[in-house]
Q: What sequence folds into this?
């Protein structure tokens, strides 16, 4: 009886979205931002019943994973709080090169599932894309539509510029994004329609 109940529990099965790609990730659908100069605040700076100034921001998850693990484990708990902001970036679960590949695949799957869940609740979601070594290219761009607006983070990338640029160029080839929200200072070599967002300005939250 218990196993039957678990198979009927969508939060256990995580099968309530149509699968895409080799590993069946949920698809984060293409959504455009009708914002000329988007701004971001950190998930760590979000608050319930936030003020009208902060609500005009999007929310990023370029912070340590432990700060936002709950949005996958208990997605309903943070839904009301997060839905008050202009848009959300899908959560940037880590895909470190020294993680086993199954963990990287899991991180990408959680990113896409949460993004698809938020979209199903009427929230504008921009998919965050991350990668590690070329082995990750077989899955890290799945679950995202062609020609969509995407987001990338530059935190820590300066230490491995070559690896970052290889993955970035692979993303351009695979997804052909219409816009790239770049959290941090982009490298001069980065091509595409880049919207650069300063890390320091994202921490200037009005309280």
A:
């Amino acid at each position: 009886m218990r196993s039957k109940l678990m198979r009927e529990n969508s939060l256990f099965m995580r099968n309530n979205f149509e699968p895409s790609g080799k590993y069946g990730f949920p698809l984060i659908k293409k959504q455009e931002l009708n914002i000329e100069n988007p701004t971001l605040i950190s998930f760590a700076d979000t608050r319930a019943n936030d003020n009208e100034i902060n609500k005009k921001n999007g929310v990023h998850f370029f912070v340590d994973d432990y700060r936002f693990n709950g949005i996958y484990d208990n997605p309903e708990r943070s839904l009301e709080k997060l839905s008050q902001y202009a848009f959300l970036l899908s959560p940037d679960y880590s895909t470190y090169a020294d993680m086993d590949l199954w963990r990287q695949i899991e991180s990408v799957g959680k990113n896409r599932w949460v993004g698809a869940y938020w979209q199903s609740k009427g929230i504008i979601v921009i998919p965050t894309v991350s990668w590690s070594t070329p082995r990750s290219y077989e899955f890290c761009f799945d679950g995202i539509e062609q020609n969509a607006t995407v987001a990338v983070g530059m935190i820590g990338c300066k230490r491995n510029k070559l690896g970052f640029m290889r993955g970035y160029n692979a993303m351009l080839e695979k997804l052909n994004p219409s816009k790239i929200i770049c959290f941090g200072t982009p490298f001069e070599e980065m091509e595409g329609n880049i919207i650069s967002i300063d890390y320091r300005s994202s921490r200037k939250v009005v309280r």
In short: DSSP finds eight helices and nine strands in the chain. The chain has a mean pLDDT of 92. The beta strands are 19-20, 25-26, 40-42, 58-60, 87-89, 125-126, 149-153, 179-183, 194-197. The CA atoms of residues 134 and 163 lie 9 Å apart.
